[in-house]
Write a structure and sequence with these properties.
Elements (H helix, E strand, L loop, with lengths): L2 H15 L7 E3 L7 E7 L5 E10 L2 E10 L9 H21 L1
Length: 99
């Protein structure tokens, strides 16, 4: 990720740590309820997404970060959502072991 995008996402995650919901965050639905997507665009028009959850105890898990490849359509590709779902499962298992 370009440095300016890292800064933007980093600030958004700081807001999450303070209990706020960033303007750039949108909730996901279905199996990924409780998971949010931060969207950031660079000056060349590329879109970056960072997926995180706060619904596992008091821990914020960043589950994925990627550059959206398709310029058509707004939705996150299914392959990316499947990867996030697997990482969410791992995060829940990891958190349960930490108790």
């Amino acid at each position: 990720m370009p440095e300016d995008i890292q800064d933007e996402v980093g600030y958004a995650l700081e807001q999450v740590q303070r209990g706020e919901t960033p303007d750039s965050a949108e909730p996901l639905h279905g199996k990924l309820s409780g998971v949010f997507e931060i969207k950031a665009d660079d000056e060349d028009g590329a879109t970056y997404r960072t997926i995180y959850t706060t619904k596992i105890g008091d821990v914020i898990y960043a589950l994925d970060a990627f550059k959206k490849k398709s310029k058509t359509g707004l939705s996150t590709p299914k392959t990316d959502l499947d990867r996030v779902e697997q990482r969410l499962k791992w995060a829940r298992e990891h958190h349960a072991k930490q108790k």
